[in-house]
Amino acid sequence: MNDWSFIDIARLVERRQALAASELARERRPLAEGWLACDGPGSYVNKACGIGYERPLTDAELDELIAFFTTRGVEPRVELSPFVLPALLNALAQRGFVLQQFANVLVRKLSEKDSYRELLPLGWPTGITVERVNPEDDAAVREYVEVAESGFLQDGEPLPPAFLELGMKAVRRPVQDAFLARQGREPIGAGGCESRDGLTALFGTSVKPAWRGRGVQQALIAARMERGREQGSQLAVIISGPGIPTERNAARLGFAMAYSRAILVKHSAGLAPSST
C-alpha cells in the first residue's frame, strides 16, 4: 500500500474493531490498549479486540479477560492480527484457546481521481439505485437492518429482536452510514460503513437471493467508497471470510489483501458461543 505499512493498517483496523464493539455492547471494559465487549449470548460484538501490540498481557489481565465472558455466560473470544506479540498467542494457548476461523482484511486506497462507479466490471446494474438511509427515520433504519441482516440468517429464519435492536443502535452512531439498494421501491440489498481516523470500513453487506450475481454488491461497495472519500478517509477496508463472494467482488474493485485475522475461542460446557 505504498506509504501504508501492513502493521499500520492493522493497528487502525483492530482499533476500529475494538472501538465499535465497545460502543455497541451493553457491557464493556478496557483491557491493555484494547477492549472487552459483551452484549449477551449470541451477539457478534462479544469479543476481546485491539490487544497485544504494545506489551504482553499479564496473568491477571488474561484471567480478567476470561472471567469477563464466562461470568456472563458466553465463550471467551479473542480477535487478533498476525502482528501481535508471540507471548500473547502462547499465553492464550496455555489457557485453552483454539483457532475458530480466519478473516481476511482487504484494503484499497481512496483517491480524489477515481470514479468508483466506473470500476464496476459490468457497469452500474440496470434499474438499481443505492441510497443513504436517514438515521433519524426509524422505519428506514429498520428496513435497512432487516435487509442487511438477512444474509447472515438461515432462509426463513426471523431476525432476532436483539439483532434488530443492535443494528438500529449501530446505524444511529455518528461514525456509521447505512445504504440500501433498490429495484424501484423494493429493497434488494444493504450494506454499512463506518469512517474514523482516515479509514472507512465496509461491512454487513447482504443481497437478496433473487438479485445476486447482478452487480448489486459491487454497486454497494462503490457507493460506500464514495462516502468514505466524502468523509476524508484515505483507506477503505473490507473484512471477509476467505474465498466467499464478498472477497471476489472486493478484488474486482481494486481491494488487495493486507493480512488475515485469527479468531480464537475458549470452549467450555454451559457457555453460549458468540456469533461470528
TrEMBL record:
<feature type="domain" description="N-acetyltransferase">
    <location>
        <begin position="128"/>
        <end position="276"/>
    </location>
</feature>
<dbReference type="InterPro" id="IPR016181">
    <property type="entry name" value="Acyl_CoA_acyltransferase"/>
</dbReference>
<dbReference type="Pfam" id="PF00583">
    <property type="entry name" value="Acetyltransf_1"/>
</dbReference>
<dbReference type="InterPro" id="IPR000182">
    <property type="entry name" value="GNAT_dom"/>
</dbReference>
<protein>
    <recommendedName>
        <fullName>N-acetyltransferase domain-containing protein</fullName>
    </recommendedName>
</protein>
<dbReference type="GO" id="GO:0016747">
    <property type="term" value="F:acyltransferase activity, transferring groups other than amino-acyl groups"/>
</dbReference>
